[in-house]
Amino acid sequence: QVQLVESGGGLVQAGGSLRLSCVASGLTFSDYTMGWFRQAPGREREFVAAISWGGSSRDYANSVKARFPISRDNARNTVHLQMSMLNPEDTAVYFCAARFRALAQSMESQRADYWGKGTPVTVSS
Fold it and tell me: Is 51:70 a contact under the CB 8 Å cutoff?
């Protein structure tokens, strides 16, 4: 059974940082492109960032580029999202997702094979 479990969310002041992690189990992690998505209250889910299964390619939403680098550790079946310069507009539930050997940019379509349950991030002003 495949599981994606996010952690690292919480409450932070504007300008602060958080590091999200997503640990995968039940799949061959190195075969999966990983992505982060978020859904703010009353809004649709949106793409945040993705990293290809080999780690050589990354893709970002314009709103987070240069603030939220994505990385992966295939030895630990983990993908990270290092969030900095947070602002209240970043408040959302953050989800990770996995898609088999996809291009990183293809995660913008939000089509994924597996999804986590999310971790909430709240940025206070």
Answer: yes
